[in-house]
Amino acid sequence: MLLFSILINHPSGGEMQFAVYSGTNHSRLSAQRGRAAIPTLRFLPEVERLSPTCIRILGGNPGKFSLQGTNTYLLGIGPKRLLIDTGEGKPSWIAAIKRTLDEEKAYIASAIVTHWHHDHQGGIPHLIETWPGTEIYKCQPGNGLLNITDGQIFEVEGASLTAAHTPGHTVDHMVLVLREEDAMFTGDNVLGQGTAVFEDLGTYMASLEKMKHLFKGRAYPGHGPVLPDGPGKIVEYIQHRRQREEQVVQTLRSGRADADAEGADLWTPMDLVKIIYCDVPESLYPAAAGGVVQILQKLEREGKVLSVNGDRWRLSDRSAL
């Protein structure tokens, strides 16, 4: 059985994760109807050294939208350190950062924000208040932040990071490759548990393809535990999305049994959801429909499907029916 997740966009920019199970027949879910729940989350310490150069500090914001909390990372072995992401600026996070820096006899030289969502950049004001003068970098910056460009390098003793622009989850999303470990900080494009949501599926898929070739080691995600085989997990993500696309195409090809001959090849996103997600609670159908619309829009750009009157869809090649 393959564990995967439906992830629902939350207005705050966070994500709600519902775990369901799929068998080898990808044309439908094999979970028992009504059985969808947030998966058991692995315990993560508030502060944990993950490697000689990397310390993870949780953002102090655990919940259904952020799993164990936002992962922030302190990098380097000398007095100058790099920080990746700032959480929401919770007091417990600031206290943990201070305590860790005191123990390390270090300070933050620069902070790098992977993307605009509040649970990754919300701590910026608190960071500036606590450590004035800290350089803070973000793609498409605002409010006095410094820009990040594709290929930009950030260095301190023991840590060299190369930034890569990987939009899809958000338009400004950046990942960072740690040269010393051939590892990647994946932001929210790849999570330690479940799968990620995205603003644009085609762009997101292109970014995953780009990411898998940039490193060979572990992945440090924006939420959840470290992934030992980062590129392997990215391949799983790509395969999962392709399976979802194939489910949509196969369902469109099957024809609707509840429609007359003239409309048998026309489907609304909700029609597709009721087939593809037939074993998921109906309360999740609207969220699932959003993902199906993303797939349909990608397939339309590729010339594989057509929209009819804006809200119904069919295959472009009707001879395939």
Automatic annotation (TrEMBL):
GO molecular function, one term: hydrolase activity
SMART domains: Lactamase_B (SM00849)
Coiled-coil stretches: none
GO BP, sorted A to Z: secondary metabolite biosynthetic process
Pfam families (UniProt xref): Lactamase_B, WHD_BLACT
Top-rank taxon: Eukaryota
Cofactor(s) this protein requires: Zn(2+)
Entry-linked CDD domains: LACTB2-like_MBL-fold
Record keyword Chloroplast present: no
Every Metallo-beta-lactamase domain range: 69-223
Keyword tags: Hydrolase, Metal-binding, Zinc
Protein family: Belongs to the metallo-beta-lactamase superfamily. Glyoxalase II family.
Protein name as annotated: Beta-lactamase-like protein
Species of origin: Lasiosphaeria hispida
